[in-house]
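subagent[fold] <- orchestrator: predict structure for attached chain, return tokens only, no commentary.
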Amino acid sequence: MTRTIVKALLLTTSTFAAVSAAHADATLTIESWRNDDLAIWQEKLIPAFEAKNPGIKVTFAPTAPTEYNAALNAKLDAGSAGDLITCRPFDASLELYNKGHLADLSGLPGMENFSPVAKSAWTTDDGKATFCVPMASVIHGFIYNKDAFEKLGIAVPTTEEEFFAALDKIKADGTYIPMAMGTKDLWEAATMGYQNIGPNYWKGEDGRLALIKGEQKLTDEAWVAPYKTLAKWKDYLGDGYQAQTYPDSQNLFTLGRAAIYPAGSWEISGFNAQAQFKMGAFPPPVQKAGDDCYISDHNDIGIGLNAKSANAEAAKTFLSWVASPEFAEIYANALPGFFSLNSTPVKMTDPLAQEFVSWRGKCKSTIRSTYQILSRGKPNLENETWAASANVINGTSTPEDAAKKLQEGLDSWYKPAK
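subagent[fold] -> orchestrator:
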């Protein structure tokens, strides 16, 4: 062996040792509000990453959900926050980026695995910077009691006419409450009602973006029509639905007392544990056969880099792994109902989760209409939509009056960019 080769080998070995030593010192801390998935991080996600990156150690350190925003802001201001910041969707995280707390991740390896819609919750208004890696979304639709449908001879509805015919049949039989939803917790009426069925009327992203641009108004028929449909729901919600809370609705369904549950996919794990009957799911019915279908496939959670992290390179290595198909598959199967935003299809084992995510293949995805830009001012359009949706279902407001009030509130502070 020549002296030159020996020198080269020694240099390569020493360089590798130096890199390993540097990585050995890298311990990353993840800030999060999701304290319910601590075991999944500790037992599945972190071990999978560390096995491929032995020089980097990762600690998951969540805060209670109701305390997260305030605690995180205090830590960031004090310079004591972790290296990795779990990101809420849209404006809360955008504010952190604008304050210089989150780094721009636009050029991060792996970000090419996400569509513009997938990244929209963590991208600046001008589209020039993306500051969190998308982790998961939740999908809206309807979960139903398969045993009840089989007993009553009801086929899964695909159009609104079939949907209301099914509700009528369930109501006439009298064994089950046709649909489990209440209006006491206002957000339930908006999230599981208006934002669930609405995209089929306003054509998903086309309508949502037109609203932001000022090309459409909430008083247009595409935005009023879902309220007209919601107004019909009150006949099928059971006695006392006005006093029914969100947990009440969950219990009515999982105890087998209601046949249909207007849902978000986040219910899957809990329902699997509690329901003693077979369940299925169907997307929001279209207005008439042959119409294009749209689903609310709403960005829910992402993860970003603390701009002041002392371990930025190691943190970027972790974030690139979060952007990988490997992470997507582990996360989606560990938390059924929280769906990967990665463009690579994920094979899931939970049948109800598989049903929800299959709609992406036949329907166009959009996000909740009130979440991006339109709820930054006062009155807050998201919160106002909660009350409007409940009032329409309760019959204390007409669809037209509800829409008019929402548009007037938006006009009072929002001026679309020209």
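orchestrator: received. Logging for downstream: The domain at 25-136+298-349 is CATH 3.40.190.10 (D-Maltodextrin-Binding Protein; domain 2). Confidence is low (pLDDT under 50) at residues 1-23.
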